[in-house]
Structures are given as structure tokens and as C-alpha cells.
Amino acid sequence: MANDIESLQNILKKDPSNFQARRELSILLINNGFNEEAEGNLQYLLKYFSDDAEIYYNLGIVSEKLKKFDDAKNYYQKAIEISPQEDFYYNLGDVLVELKDWDNAIDAFRKVLETDPEDGNCYFNLGVCYFNKDEKNLALDNFQKAVSINPKDVYAYFYLGYIYQNDGLTNFAVDSYNKVLEISPDYSWAYFNLGSIAFKNGNLEEAKNYLLKTIQYNSSDIEAYKLLTKICLKSGETEDILEILHTRLQADENGDIYYCLARVYKYIGDSEKYCDNLELALNNPYSLTFQKKIVKQEFEYMEQKLDRKEKIEPQAIVEEYSSENQDLENMSDDTDIDEEYFEEDSDEELSEEDEELSDESDEDSEEEEDISDDEEIEDDMEEDDYFSNEDEDENDFGEDASYDDEVDEEQDE
Description:
Oligomer: single chain
Structural class: mainly alpha
């Protein structure tokens, strides 16, 4: 392939007006990732062939690869204007999905279905559009149509599972996630959501096994570690979770993992390590999604206790906190799904109990008031749901474009 490119380049050096060679070179450059050079050759051709739909179409492809989505949209629209074709409409729909122009994307994919009513990829993409428009029934219809045409469409099954799960149709959700795993046994997000369902149903051992599978296939899945921590504390398996969390930290530091460790050490009554890991969590603010103000107040409170040579007692009851589903849009590399989990936002509103501890803090740059009534604060810390994730927006698709890129590549194959 490299020899073909070099050969065509040599031809053009001798004869720059050899348009056929330039066309062939442009396609080879696109296919081999030389997008800027391909773009230059296509722009050169456009000067001489301003009504050539294929040139506009290929410029749209290059612009997509270069993340110039507005340019890509314009090129595809120009190609359609000159010569409406199924591929042109499909690629336009993909770009409109990137631009979150759901209604026009739907129109583009519908155009494809007019000529090819059995295009499973179009039904999948329509499902994604309707999902993001919060029209879940239409999303379900299209994902179901996608899997009826292509029973191996792992992404459509995952969306179906997610929608069923959030509608409380647990059995349908489990069936869909199991179908995902039949097709792709290393699909970590399906394991996570099955673990989440098992946890909510009180099946702790089953949940733990699913989550161990999750981190086996995706060791950077922080949400899995957080839910595992809850489960192991509930079942008293503190040694297991300590080993799991410390192993994860060998890969890289993470504020959430340090906070999970802090909660384990609090549970077993190790005041020093509880305080140390709270500090380490605060030292990694960009990866700490738990409420930073609350973590800081916990740390300052424990510092004062340790200064007075006071210890904490092991906990008899595990603090309750909620678990969340994995976000379809922010998905990790092993899923190829758009954007993972529902991202936790450390700046979301505090719960009522959290506000009792943080309403005196007006600015992040100001010091929190000294804790004066140790007994009252200690009671609050025992009762408060410190180890909780904030509720997340089920419809927050599209914050990260990686999902659409990866899914499109797989669907196009």
C-alpha cells in the first residue's frame, strides 16, 4: 500500500494535472490515515470539478476523521444536493449525531431506510437519537428492530438492557445483558450493570462476582471498585477489598480509590490509616468525585481527634450509600460505547445532611469553620450518607464523542 501511495505521488510530481491519479491517491491517503494530505488533494480536485458529488463526499469523510464535524456536515449536504445517495445520507446522519442534532439525524437515517429498509445500523442509530431525545419507547422499538435484523448487535442489546433496567424491568434487563455477554464475553459494562442489579436485589455474592469480572476486563473501572467496597463492607470481607483497592493503586493514584480505602479503615477502626487516606484522597482532587467539602471536613475532624490521642471505634453497621448504573456515553475502551458511565459531579448539590456540614463554606478558597462540638459532628458523621454517589442524569449522553466514533466504526464494518 505504501508503494502504491509513493508511486502515485511520483506520477503527480511529473504531471500535477493527472486528476485520476490524484483521485486514487486521495482515497489511499484516507484509508491509511493521512487525512491532512488527503484533504489537500481533494481541495485541489474541487477547484476543477466543483459539481463532483464524490469529491464532496470524500471531503466529508476526511473532515469527520479530523473532527471537523460542521465542515463534514456541509460537504455531505453538498454531495446530497448534487446526487442523493444512500451512503451520503448515512454519513450525514453520523455527523449530525456527533453534533447532537437529533431531529435532522433521524431524517437522514430515515432517508436511508427508504431505499434499504433492512439496514440494521440505521435502526441502531435511530435508537440512539430517540434515546437522547428521551423518547424511550421509540428508542426501544428501534433497538429491537436492530437486533431482529442483526442478532449480533452487542450495542443495541446493551442499550435495551439499560432502558429496561431503568424502567424497573429487571428480568428483561438481565436477559439483554446476558445476550451482550454471549456475543462479547469480555464486555465489562454488562458485568457491572448485572452486578448493580444483583446488589440492589440483595444478592451480594453474585454482585461481587460480577464486579470482579468487571475489573478483570477493565481494571480502570473506578465505579466497580466503589460498588465492590460497599459489598465487601456489608459482607465483612475487609481483607479482600483492601487487597483489591491497594492493587488498583499500584497502577495509578486515584482520589476515589483512596476515599474507598478511608471508608474501609474507618469501618475496621484504624484511625491513622483512615485519616491518611482521607488526606491522599484530597491530594488527588481531579479523580475524587465524592463531595470534596465533606471529605475535607472528615479529614479535619479526624486530625483533631488524633491530635487529642483519640481513636475511632470499629463500626457495627455499614453506612448506606447508593449505587448508580453505568453511563452509556462515557464508556471505557473495552465497551466501544459512547461515553462510560454516568459521570459523578463533585459540584452537584449536597444532600440535606451534607449541607448541615458544609453550609458554612461559602468559597472553596476560604477555610472551613473549626469544628467546635466534636460530639455533635461525630454523630452526624455516623448518621450521614458520606459514602454516596450523587444522582446522575440518565439522559446525559454526548458529553464524550468517543462512543459514537467507536460504535460507528464497528457498525460500518
